[in-house]
Each structure stands twice: as structure tokens, then as C-alpha cells.
Design goal:
Structural class: mainly alpha
Largest sheet: none
Order of helices and strands: HHHHHHHH
Number of strands: 0
Shape: globular
Distance between the termini: 29 Å
């Protein structure tokens, strides 16, 4: 029962960090290429490491309550969808996290980005392209405690 309050607290912290730190892949890319500063990219690495250090041990302790995402192979439809999302992010000047930050800041124009994502997902599923490309997921190597998992969490 402690898991739900813990996850709610962590989601609040993530929302606060997104809004406060302006975590956005588009801004990070621009800072890296134009300004030659890598601080925003390093922040993504720190965020990913922090998430892994929290989620993986939680999964080991409560596998029925906390699951790890399975991996799916990259197919043509996934690559095309990713390219379209990237083009939309470039035109929007914000990635998905940046869009959420703008929305929570009251800039409701970014709601069109969310609408575009819903339309794209609906088009993929209704066209049958998504079902044709879905294959069996590959379980995460961090599913069970191991030396590799322990090293992942420790690092």
C-alpha cells in the first residue's frame, strides 16, 4: 500500500522537474549543436539513471505491482512514426516533455501536439500497419536480480 503514495510523490517530483528544469530534447539538441553545451543532454542521463535506480529495485521487491517495459524491435512503421514525431517536435520547437511543460505552464496551443499524437496513433491502428509490425516483446534483462542488474542499479 505504500507503493501508490510513493509513485504519486515521484510523479509530482517529475512534473516539478519538467516544469522547473525545462527538460526538452529539442532544447537539449539545440544547446548541444548551436551553443556547444552538453549540460541538458547530461541531465537526461542523470534522469534516466535516477529512474532506473528507483524502478528496478521496486520491480525486484514487488514484481506484481511494478513492471518493467518489454523491448520491441525497430520496424519500418516504428521508424516512420519516430521520424514523423521528430519532424513535429522540430516544427513545434518542443519534444513531448517540452510540450507537457508548456501545457502545464498554461500555453494551451501545445494541446494541438497532443491531438496530433492521438490522430497519428489512431491512423496507425486503424490502417493495420501497427498490428502487422508488432512482434513478441523481448523481456528486459533486468527482470530478475542478477550481477548485471546489481551493477546497473549501483552505477
Amino acid at each position: 500500500m505504500i507503493l501508490i503514495p510513493l509513485l504519486l510523490g515521484l510523479s509530482f517530483l517529475v512534473g516539478y522537474a519538467i516544469r522547473r528544469g525545462s527538460i526538452c530534447a529539442v532544447l537539449a539538441t539545440r544547446a548541444l549543436i548551436v551553443d556547444r553545451r552538453s549540460a541538458r543532454f547530461r541531465a537526461f542521463g542523470v534522469a534516466a539513471a535516477g529512474a532506473g535506480a528507483v524502478v528496478v529495485p521496486l520491480h525486484w521487491l514487488a514484481p506484481a505491482d511494478v513492471t518493467l517495459s518489454a523491448g520491441y524491435p525497430v520496424t519500418v512503421s516504428v521508424a516512420v512514426a519516430g521520424a514523423i514525431l521528430g519532424l513535429g517536435a522540430r516544427l513545434n520547437n518542443a519534444c513531448v516533455l517540452g510540450t507537457l511543460a508548456h501545457l502545464t505552464g498554461g500555453n494551451l496551443v501545445f494541446g494541438f501536439s497532443v491531438l496530433g499524437m492521438v490522430i497519428g496513433a489512431t491512423a496507425m491502428t486503424s490502417s493495420g500497419l501497427w498490428q502487422a509490425s508488432v512482434t513478441a516483446p523481448v523481456p528486459s534483462p533486468l527482470e530478475e536480480p542478477s550481477n548485471f542488474g546489481g551493477a546497473f542499479v549501483a552505477v
